[in-house]
Amino acid sequence: MGEQVAPQYVGVEKGPGPKGVQTFARTELGAQISYYKAWRGRKHAHTLIRGSPEQSFHVLPSYFHMLEKLNPGTVTRIEVDGESRFKYLFLAFGVAIRGFRYMRKVVGIDGTFLKGQYRGVLLVATAQDGNGQCYPLAWGIVDSENEDVWSWFLTQLKEIIGDTDELALISDSAPSIKKAISTIFEKAHHGACAWHVAQNIKNKFKCADIMRSYWSAVNAYRCEDFTGYMIEISNRYPRVAEYLENEVGFEKWSRCHYPGLRYNITTTNMVESLNSMLVNARDFPYVALLDVIQEKMSKWWNDRRIVLRPRFAQSNGRHTSQLNPITYHVKGAHHAQVSVYSLVSPYYTKKYYLLAYGETIYPVGSQSQWDVPNEVVTRIVLPREVKEKKRGRPKTSRFPSVGEFRKRKNHCGKCGAYGHYKKKCNSQTESTEGNPPTNMPV
């Protein structure tokens, strides 16, 4: 069955699920198969197209060698234990490393769990270009999130982006990340994700009605305005104001008190966007997952370069299409007979935008065409040891970040819908006395 359905998984990330395989078997092959057999056929088709998880570890050194060969300046690392079992990997494309000089020096970092046989956590570090788009810098795959893991990843990241006063690192409130950043980056400034802080406030103090004042304080440019919003919060919820000042720290989440430059980047949404982009690829073998990352980054670089180049020629390369200068600054510049464009940071110019996306990220091609030295081919990387698999369906939804909580969805036992209970259901499917419910078999 896997060989029959395999073509449907070529060139796509998701493909049909077990029920889709059952439908294929019934309509195309005239066979009735069980859900379990369909699930096994789908798994075998994935192996035929993307390789097995065990094979992925074996070819990882050769894959990284080809990435470095075809993309000069690319940095790769593979960490193994004393038994040559896989621990961590790190990947940063040379194109992104060179292009970072044209980005605002604000980097968001976060991790998301993987769903394949060997699990693990995907770590991401990304900047944001002047047009508000994600600019991935580095990727890592590790066994879990803890201080040692983050220290290793941030050490590799520091080698490619440096450590300066201009650099800002934004993350959630996980203690392991905070401690690793303070240890590895001595000059850079760490900022907390304002969205995670907001979720923590809702969870701890049950006061969602002050979120407007909170977000106004987050985005305030002037300390006078910030103080006014904090007075509003303090008058209504003194404990929240104390938490924001003493436990989190104004300098971590507010724009006006932040010691460095974080521009308008107050959350780690840019990292969450990358995690969402890979939602279907997170159960792939590691090399197949990295292939998806390379493919998407290559497409972004090409599309953004091609789309903007004609506009750049028409506008003489002055500013990006999304730039909206503050009105009174524009009026003041005109009154003083100063060019508005002289007040704009070069990070927002189309010249910097094109320089950032000026190169191409190349794929490694078919494995049969690889030219890899023997010392790389013979390097042994064994799969990591995994805990005994738990019974039942594997968990596929992500774990909430620190400070994040999720509302429970009410499920109606009468109509089956979400958002209300049976007692408050207005559905007309209520059973009458002496008759069975309409949604139950007689």
Question: What does this 3D model show about the protein?
Answer:
This protein is α/β, with parallel strands linked by helices and 442 residues long. It contains 17 helices and seven strands. Strand 4 and strand 5 form a beta hairpin. The radius of gyration is 26 Å and the shape is globular. Mean pLDDT is 83; it is low at 319-326 and 429-442.
List the helices and strands and how they pair.
Blueprint: H1 2-5, H2 18-28, H3 35-50, H4 53-70, E1 75-80, E2 86-92, H5 94-99, E3 106-113, E4 121-128, E5 134-142, H6 147-161, E6 168-171, H7 175-184, E7 189-192, H8 194-205, H9 211-219, H10 223-236, H11 238-248, H12 250-253, H13 269-277, H14 286-314, H15 327-335, H16 350-356, H17 374-377
Parallel strand pairs: 3-6, 6-7
Antiparallel strand pairs: 1-2, 2-5, 3-4, 4-5
Written as H for each helix and E for each strand, in order along the chain, the element string is: HHHHEEHEEEHEHEHHHHHHHHHH
Q: Helix/strand/pairing class, anyone? A: alpha/beta
Number of strands: 7
Placed side by side, the strands forming the largest sheet appear as: 1-2-5-4-3-6-7
Distance between the termini: 37 Å
**Low-confidence spans:** 319-326, 429-442
- Fraction of helical residues: 40-55%
Q: Name the beta content range.
A: 5-15%
| Overall pLDDT | 83
Count the helices. How many?
A: 17
Rg, rounded, reads 26 Å
What gross morphology would you assign? globular
Largest sheet: 7 strands, mixed
